[in-house]
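Support reply, case 0932

Customer input (verbatim):
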Amino acid sequence: MEIIGIVIAGIVGLAAGVITALQISKRKNESKANSIIEEAKAEAEVVKKDKILQAKEKFLQLKEEHEKVIASRERKMADAENRIKQKETTLNNKLHENNKKDKELNKLKSELDRKFEVAEQKQAELDKNHRKQVELLEKAAGLSAEEAKAQLVEVLKEEAKTDAMAHIKDTVEEAKINANKEARKVVIQTIQRVATEQAIENSVSVFNIDSDDMKGRIIGREGRNIRALEGATGVEIIVDDTPEAIILSCFDPVRRETARLALHQLVTDGRIHPARIEEVVKKVRKQLEDEIVDVGKKTCIDLGIHGLHPELLRMVGRMKYRSSYGQNLLQHSREVANLCATMASELGLNPKIAKRAGLLHDIGKVPDDEPELPHALLGMKLAEKYKEKAEVCNAIGAHHDEIEMTSLISPIVQVCDAVSGARPGARREIVESYINRIKELENLGMSQAGVEKAYAIQAGRELRVIVQSEKISDDEADKISFNIAQKIQTEMTYPGQVKVTVIRERRAVNYAK
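Our regenerated output:
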């Protein structure tokens, strides 16, 4: 029992020691926790103060910016108010001036009304006096006013005819000058601003060679080389006694150019035989097609025309190898395009559409196939096929009056086409048609009564008519000139204008014996 009591006492003592140690550890932990909490509170207080300071600085910054914005708005509002006040003052001044002018106008109106009434009274008095004078004259002459007028008209009728003809001529000339003043100004400015070369295309080309020995190689054994070249190109090759030159003859410029380029390559290479000729001609045709496309592209780039269909580009390039009355078609189309753009700008129209229509107006002359249609209508159909604008299509189709014009671009293209084709040196007229036109001009002059001789001079641009002085007076000579000019204008087709000069000469001849 004692042992058990001792053990229990030991256990109790041990437990008390453990409890005491735990209490001491707890107090240490609580003290450490309290110190940590105190440190955390101190740090939190420092962070709090920093945040509060930052918030205050941010608030002050935003407040300052807000005050600046408000001050700027207030300045703008003050400026706007000042402007409004100035406008109000100006309007008040103008209103005052208008009121003053209204008063003056009303005053003038009153004065005019008064003067008009006085004038009416005076006019009535004048009419009354005029009637009295007419009655007195009728009594004195024994004729009424209507009978006197009829007699006066009969007496002056013959003189009036001549005077009327001269007056009509002067009036017509004055009307033409006044009506065409602006049009001539536009046309002259357009022509002055567009310069172009004068080029006459021929149906032959001359190919130069270094020596006459090359002619034999080109002809070949028994002429096989020249026959092969003519068959492959469709061009007549003339080898004659002309020193160091061979003539290529063909009405198709594309074939002629193909033959020239092929001949140049063959002569440069030195190998000339039928198989080689066919190979070179085929290669040159391909090169020429590529060159035609390049010419079309370059032309459109030079003129500033964009978005043209590739097939139309190729046709523009083919114009380089076509001619119309000796005038190169591509140069003519470029000239018409520039003229159209300049004239459209002067008239306040769209110069880009006008330039496009001017370039494409003769596109119907260079199709691959040649249907039985006028070139203007064919060109219009091609333009419609490749989605050109309606104004461009109408200008192409109407530039020779095949269809009705529906836009202002159409007459511009027609006029510029005539300007380009009719200028001196632009085209070469066929001899037969030229001679027929000259004869027709002289016969038309001789058809007038009293005409002794008629001469067409200056390549048909002037008609000199000599009349019989004993039968024709000076006034009748003016009438003949006028009538001939009207007949030429209505009955003939001619480029430019024709000047009609009537010559009346009186000669007195005597002999001293």
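We compared this against your earlier run and they match. Two observations from our side: The beta strands are 204-208, 236-238, 245-249, 323-324, 327-328, 451-457, 462-467, 499-504. Residues 197-201 have pLDDT under 50 and may be disordered. Please reopen the case if you see a mismatch on your end.
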